[in-house]
Amino acid sequence: MPDQTIAVRQPDETVIVKQRSMFRQILARLVRNRSAMIGFCLLMIIVVLCLLAPVIAPQGFNAQNISAKFQPPSLKYPCGTDNLGRDIFVRILYGGRISLLIGVVSTLFSAAIGIVIGLFAGYRGGSTDNVAMRIIDIVMSIPAILLAITIAAALGTGVNSAIIAIGIASIPIFARLTRAPIIQVKNEEYIEAARAISASQFRIMFRHLLPNILSPLIVQITINVALSIMLAAGLSFLGMGVQPPNPEWGAIITSAKVYIIDHSYMVTMPGIAMALTVISLNLFGDGLRDCLDPRLKI
User: Among 265, 289, 233, 290, which Cα is nearest to 100's?
Assistant: First the structure.
Protein backbone atom coordinates (compact mmCIF):
# COMPACT_ATOMS: atom_id res chain seq x y z
CA MET A 1 0.00 0.00 0.00
CA PRO A 2 1.60 3.33 -1.03
CA ASP A 3 2.01 6.22 1.39
CA GLN A 4 -0.97 8.60 1.49
CA THR A 5 -0.79 12.37 1.79
CA ILE A 6 -3.73 14.20 3.38
CA ALA A 7 -4.26 17.96 3.41
CA VAL A 8 -5.65 19.19 6.74
CA ARG A 9 -7.03 22.75 6.65
CA GLN A 10 -6.58 24.88 9.77
CA PRO A 11 -8.21 28.28 10.32
CA ASP A 12 -5.27 30.18 8.79
CA GLU A 13 -3.13 27.55 7.09
CA THR A 14 -3.10 24.14 5.45
CA VAL A 15 -0.98 21.43 7.07
CA ILE A 16 0.17 18.47 5.00
CA VAL A 17 0.06 15.19 6.97
CA LYS A 18 1.78 12.21 5.39
CA GLN A 19 0.40 8.82 6.44
CA ARG A 20 2.80 5.91 6.25
CA SER A 21 1.61 2.62 4.80
CA MET A 22 0.90 -0.23 7.19
CA PHE A 23 3.97 -2.13 5.97
CA ARG A 24 6.24 0.82 6.64
CA GLN A 25 4.74 1.33 10.08
CA ILE A 26 5.42 -2.31 10.97
CA LEU A 27 8.93 -2.11 9.51
CA ALA A 28 9.66 1.06 11.49
CA ARG A 29 8.52 -0.56 14.75
CA LEU A 30 10.54 -3.67 13.93
CA VAL A 31 13.71 -1.63 13.38
CA ARG A 32 13.18 0.10 16.74
CA ASN A 33 12.75 -3.25 18.52
CA ARG A 34 16.23 -4.05 19.83
CA SER A 35 15.67 -7.74 20.60
CA ALA A 36 14.09 -8.34 17.20
CA MET A 37 17.04 -6.70 15.44
CA ILE A 38 19.55 -8.69 17.50
CA GLY A 39 17.74 -11.91 16.61
CA PHE A 40 17.44 -10.94 12.95
CA CYS A 41 21.11 -9.97 12.59
CA LEU A 42 22.29 -13.12 14.37
CA LEU A 43 20.01 -15.25 12.20
CA MET A 44 21.25 -13.59 9.01
CA ILE A 45 24.88 -14.21 10.01
CA ILE A 46 24.13 -17.90 10.59
CA VAL A 47 22.18 -18.25 7.35
CA VAL A 48 24.82 -16.49 5.25
CA LEU A 49 27.65 -18.57 6.73
CA CYS A 50 25.73 -21.78 6.05
CA LEU A 51 24.87 -20.76 2.49
CA LEU A 52 28.51 -19.86 1.83
CA ALA A 53 29.78 -23.17 3.23
CA PRO A 54 30.94 -24.43 -0.23
CA VAL A 55 32.89 -21.18 -0.66
CA ILE A 56 34.34 -21.13 2.85
CA ALA A 57 35.25 -24.83 2.79
CA PRO A 58 35.40 -26.11 -0.80
CA GLN A 59 36.98 -29.36 0.40
CA GLY A 60 33.56 -30.47 1.68
CA PHE A 61 32.30 -31.62 5.05
CA ASN A 62 33.77 -35.12 4.91
CA ALA A 63 37.44 -34.28 4.27
CA GLN A 64 39.55 -36.32 6.69
CA ASN A 65 42.98 -35.73 8.20
CA ILE A 66 43.75 -38.54 10.61
CA SER A 67 46.95 -36.86 11.78
CA ALA A 68 44.86 -33.93 13.07
CA LYS A 69 42.16 -35.88 14.89
CA PHE A 70 40.87 -34.73 18.29
CA GLN A 71 42.38 -31.27 17.91
CA PRO A 72 40.82 -28.84 20.43
CA PRO A 73 39.43 -25.49 19.23
CA SER A 74 42.20 -23.24 17.87
CA LEU A 75 42.78 -20.58 15.24
CA LYS A 76 43.25 -23.26 12.59
CA TYR A 77 40.25 -25.28 13.76
CA PRO A 78 37.78 -22.86 15.43
CA CYS A 79 35.60 -25.72 16.67
CA GLY A 80 38.24 -28.45 16.81
CA THR A 81 38.33 -31.73 14.90
CA ASP A 82 36.56 -35.04 15.42
CA ASN A 83 37.78 -38.62 15.67
CA LEU A 84 38.46 -38.74 11.91
CA GLY A 85 40.25 -35.41 11.75
CA ARG A 86 37.30 -33.64 10.13
CA ASP A 87 36.91 -29.92 10.81
CA ILE A 88 33.87 -29.57 13.10
CA PHE A 89 33.34 -25.92 12.11
CA VAL A 90 33.02 -26.95 8.46
CA ARG A 91 30.64 -29.75 9.38
CA ILE A 92 28.55 -27.31 11.41
CA LEU A 93 28.28 -24.97 8.42
CA TYR A 94 27.22 -27.77 6.08
CA GLY A 95 24.98 -29.22 8.76
CA GLY A 96 23.26 -25.87 9.16
CA ARG A 97 22.17 -26.05 5.55
CA ILE A 98 20.38 -29.33 6.25
CA SER A 99 18.93 -28.23 9.60
CA LEU A 100 17.63 -24.93 8.22
CA LEU A 101 16.22 -26.70 5.17
CA ILE A 102 14.30 -29.15 7.36
CA GLY A 103 13.10 -26.35 9.65
CA VAL A 104 11.86 -24.07 6.87
CA VAL A 105 10.36 -26.67 4.52
CA SER A 106 8.62 -28.67 7.27
CA THR A 107 7.16 -25.45 8.69
CA LEU A 108 5.85 -24.32 5.30
CA PHE A 109 4.43 -27.82 4.74
CA SER A 110 2.62 -27.85 8.09
CA ALA A 111 1.47 -24.23 7.74
CA ALA A 112 -0.04 -24.82 4.29
CA ILE A 113 -2.06 -27.83 5.42
CA GLY A 114 -2.92 -26.52 8.89
CA ILE A 115 -4.11 -23.13 7.62
CA VAL A 116 -6.39 -24.74 5.03
CA ILE A 117 -7.87 -27.08 7.65
CA GLY A 118 -8.40 -24.20 10.08
CA LEU A 119 -9.99 -22.02 7.40
CA PHE A 120 -12.51 -24.61 6.31
CA ALA A 121 -13.30 -25.77 9.85
CA GLY A 122 -13.76 -22.25 11.21
CA TYR A 123 -15.73 -20.89 8.26
CA ARG A 124 -17.96 -23.88 7.53
CA GLY A 125 -18.63 -24.76 11.18
CA GLY A 126 -21.09 -27.51 12.05
CA SER A 127 -20.10 -31.11 11.33
CA THR A 128 -17.07 -30.04 9.26
CA ASP A 129 -15.68 -28.16 12.23
CA ASN A 130 -16.48 -30.94 14.70
CA VAL A 131 -14.88 -33.71 12.64
CA ALA A 132 -11.77 -31.67 11.76
CA MET A 133 -11.18 -30.46 15.31
CA ARG A 134 -11.68 -33.90 16.86
CA ILE A 135 -9.02 -35.28 14.53
CA ILE A 136 -6.77 -32.36 15.41
CA ASP A 137 -7.40 -33.01 19.11
CA ILE A 138 -6.35 -36.63 18.70
CA VAL A 139 -3.14 -35.61 16.95
CA MET A 140 -2.41 -32.92 19.54
CA SER A 141 -2.83 -35.44 22.36
CA ILE A 142 0.33 -37.19 21.11
CA PRO A 143 3.62 -35.43 22.01
CA ALA A 144 5.17 -33.91 18.89
CA ILE A 145 8.48 -35.76 19.25
CA LEU A 146 6.70 -39.10 19.76
CA LEU A 147 4.47 -38.52 16.73
CA ALA A 148 7.50 -37.50 14.65
CA ILE A 149 9.39 -40.63 15.74
CA THR A 150 6.42 -42.83 14.81
CA ILE A 151 6.06 -41.28 11.36
CA ALA A 152 9.81 -41.34 10.73
CA ALA A 153 9.93 -45.01 11.72
CA ALA A 154 7.21 -45.77 9.18
CA LEU A 155 8.78 -43.71 6.37
CA GLY A 156 12.42 -44.52 7.05
CA THR A 157 15.38 -42.27 7.74
CA GLY A 158 16.55 -39.32 5.65
CA VAL A 159 15.89 -35.64 5.06
CA ASN A 160 12.59 -36.12 3.23
CA SER A 161 11.21 -38.40 5.93
CA ALA A 162 12.24 -35.94 8.62
CA ILE A 163 10.51 -33.08 6.80
CA ILE A 164 7.27 -35.04 6.45
CA ALA A 165 7.35 -36.35 10.02
CA ILE A 166 8.02 -32.95 11.59
CA GLY A 167 5.57 -31.23 9.24
CA ILE A 168 2.70 -33.57 10.17
CA ALA A 169 3.45 -33.16 13.87
CA SER A 170 3.13 -29.35 13.53
CA ILE A 171 -0.12 -29.25 11.53
CA PRO A 172 -2.44 -29.04 14.60
CA ILE A 173 -0.71 -25.87 15.82
CA PHE A 174 -1.53 -23.96 12.63
CA ALA A 175 -5.03 -25.46 12.34
CA ARG A 176 -5.97 -24.30 15.84
CA LEU A 177 -4.30 -20.92 15.41
CA THR A 178 -6.23 -20.31 12.17
CA ARG A 179 -9.62 -21.58 13.30
CA ALA A 180 -10.00 -19.42 16.42
CA PRO A 181 -9.84 -15.96 14.75
CA ILE A 182 -11.86 -17.19 11.75
CA ILE A 183 -14.79 -17.96 14.06
CA GLN A 184 -14.55 -14.45 15.47
CA VAL A 185 -14.44 -12.55 12.16
CA LYS A 186 -16.52 -14.69 9.79
CA ASN A 187 -19.73 -12.81 10.69
CA GLU A 188 -18.25 -9.31 10.36
CA GLU A 189 -19.98 -6.83 8.07
CA TYR A 190 -17.38 -7.00 5.30
CA ILE A 191 -17.85 -10.78 5.13
CA GLU A 192 -21.63 -10.34 4.96
CA ALA A 193 -21.08 -7.83 2.14
CA ALA A 194 -18.97 -10.37 0.26
CA ARG A 195 -21.73 -12.97 0.64
CA ALA A 196 -24.30 -10.41 -0.54
CA ILE A 197 -22.49 -10.01 -3.87
CA SER A 198 -22.39 -13.82 -4.25
CA ALA A 199 -18.66 -14.21 -3.66
CA SER A 200 -17.62 -17.85 -3.54
CA GLN A 201 -16.65 -19.48 -0.25
CA PHE A 202 -13.14 -20.00 -1.58
CA ARG A 203 -12.80 -16.28 -2.36
CA ILE A 204 -14.21 -15.26 1.01
CA MET A 205 -11.84 -17.54 2.90
CA PHE A 206 -8.65 -16.81 1.00
CA ARG A 207 -9.28 -13.23 -0.20
CA HIS A 208 -11.09 -11.69 2.78
CA LEU A 209 -10.59 -13.85 5.88
CA LEU A 210 -7.02 -15.12 5.57
CA PRO A 211 -5.32 -11.70 5.06
CA ASN A 212 -6.95 -10.45 8.26
CA ILE A 213 -5.50 -13.24 10.44
CA LEU A 214 -1.98 -13.41 8.98
CA SER A 215 -0.24 -11.62 11.84
CA PRO A 216 -0.29 -14.47 14.41
CA LEU A 217 0.41 -17.00 11.66
CA ILE A 218 3.55 -15.17 10.52
CA VAL A 219 4.83 -15.07 14.08
CA GLN A 220 4.07 -18.76 14.59
CA ILE A 221 5.94 -19.65 11.40
CA THR A 222 9.14 -18.05 12.69
CA ILE A 223 8.82 -19.78 16.06
CA ASN A 224 7.89 -23.10 14.47
CA VAL A 225 11.07 -23.08 12.37
CA ALA A 226 13.04 -23.11 15.63
CA LEU A 227 10.90 -25.94 17.02
CA SER A 228 11.34 -27.92 13.80
CA ILE A 229 15.12 -27.57 13.95
CA MET A 230 15.10 -28.97 17.49
CA LEU A 231 12.76 -31.80 16.47
CA ALA A 232 15.02 -32.64 13.54
CA ALA A 233 18.03 -32.73 15.86
CA GLY A 234 16.10 -34.95 18.26
CA LEU A 235 15.15 -37.38 15.50
CA SER A 236 18.76 -37.55 14.28
CA PHE A 237 20.05 -38.05 17.82
CA LEU A 238 17.66 -40.98 18.25
CA GLY A 239 18.74 -42.45 14.90
CA MET A 240 15.41 -41.75 13.18
CA GLY A 241 16.36 -38.68 11.14
CA VAL A 242 19.35 -37.67 9.03
CA GLN A 243 22.04 -40.32 9.19
CA PRO A 244 25.84 -39.91 9.45
CA PRO A 245 28.05 -38.98 7.72
CA ASN A 246 25.58 -36.27 6.65
CA PRO A 247 26.37 -33.36 8.97
CA GLU A 248 22.98 -32.38 10.33
CA TRP A 249 23.44 -30.82 13.79
CA GLY A 250 21.69 -33.64 15.63
CA ALA A 251 23.63 -36.24 13.63
CA ILE A 252 26.93 -34.52 14.52
CA ILE A 253 26.03 -34.68 18.21
CA THR A 254 25.03 -38.33 17.87
CA SER A 255 28.34 -39.36 16.34
CA ALA A 256 30.26 -37.38 18.99
CA LYS A 257 28.39 -38.47 22.12
CA VAL A 258 30.79 -41.35 22.83
CA TYR A 259 33.63 -38.81 23.15
CA ILE A 260 31.79 -36.36 25.40
CA ILE A 261 33.96 -37.08 28.46
CA ASP A 262 37.38 -36.54 26.93
CA HIS A 263 36.46 -34.25 24.02
CA SER A 264 33.37 -32.36 25.10
CA TYR A 265 33.82 -29.67 22.42
CA MET A 266 32.68 -32.21 19.80
CA VAL A 267 29.22 -32.06 21.35
CA THR A 268 29.11 -28.51 22.68
CA MET A 269 30.07 -26.76 19.42
CA PRO A 270 27.16 -28.06 17.30
CA GLY A 271 24.93 -27.61 20.35
CA ILE A 272 25.93 -23.96 20.59
CA ALA A 273 25.24 -23.47 16.87
CA MET A 274 21.77 -24.94 17.25
CA ALA A 275 21.09 -22.92 20.42
CA LEU A 276 22.12 -19.65 18.76
CA THR A 277 19.86 -20.36 15.79
CA VAL A 278 16.87 -21.18 17.99
CA ILE A 279 17.47 -18.14 20.21
CA SER A 280 17.74 -15.82 17.19
CA LEU A 281 14.50 -17.16 15.73
CA ASN A 282 12.68 -16.79 19.05
CA LEU A 283 13.97 -13.24 19.54
CA PHE A 284 12.91 -12.26 16.04
CA GLY A 285 9.53 -14.00 16.43
CA ASP A 286 8.81 -12.25 19.73
CA GLY A 287 9.78 -8.89 18.28
CA LEU A 288 7.65 -9.51 15.20
CA ARG A 289 4.70 -10.39 17.42
CA ASP A 290 5.04 -7.07 19.25
CA CYS A 291 5.27 -5.14 15.97
CA LEU A 292 2.19 -6.83 14.52
CA ASP A 293 0.09 -6.30 17.66
CA PRO A 294 -2.85 -4.09 16.62
CA ARG A 295 -2.91 -2.45 20.06
CA LEU A 296 0.52 -0.93 19.35
CA LYS A 297 -0.39 0.61 15.98
CA ILE A 298 -0.31 4.37 15.78
Answer: 233
- Give the model confidence (pLDDT) of 86-106 as tens digits: 999 999 999 999 999 999 999
* Nearest CA-CA partner of 149 in 34, 258, 238, 282: 238
Q: DSSP alpha helices (H): ranges in the chain?
A: 22-32, 34-51, 53-56, 88-124, 126-140, 144-155, 159-185, 189-196, 201-203, 214-237, 249-256, 265-292
pLDDT in the model for residue 237? 87
Whole-angstrom Cα distance, residue 98 to residue 251? Answer: 11
Domains and CATH numbers, the chain: 38-296 (1.10.3720.10)
What is the predicted pLDDT for the residue at 98? 93
Tell me how far the alpha carbon of residue 233 is from its chain's centroid: 14
pLDDT interval class at 1 (50, 70, 90): very low
C-alpha distance across the termini of the chain, in Å: 16
Q: Strand 14-19 and strand 4-9: pairing? A: antiparallel
